[in-house]
Amino acid sequence: xxxxxxxxxxxxxxxxxxxxxxxxxxxxxxxxxxxxxxxxxxxxxxxxxxxxxxxxxxxxxxxxxxxxxxxxxxxxxxxxxxxxxxxxxxxxxxxxxxxxxxxxxxxxxxxxxxxxxxxxxxxxxxxxxxxxxxxxxxxx
Length: 140
Description:
The protein is mostly helical. The chain has helices spanning 2-42, 46-55, 61-77, 82-105, 110-129.
């Protein structure tokens, strides 16, 4: 019987390890993508300003988006603070869903859409695979 229990425990441990590796792969990609987008937005490259105006948003909105993305990246990478992480994931989700929706409504090409779609997928995947110590539990 102890062999069965230890085999089950090994399977659970392997699944947990695998899930953590998947989480960190998606989270690092997400953090790098959001950070690079934030830098481009904060320095207001001409192409980024043109895209923002094309989408119908004011250029000054880039500063707000860039700063919030940097704060969100910090929130998801720093240990502890699960509630703050949930807010960061929600912010990323709504920001990228809004960008994706804006591009689709305007009939933009896949070349304009793929970045928003990729960051949206990475956000959901990172959130889904996050370890238990990065989740809000019922007692908190």
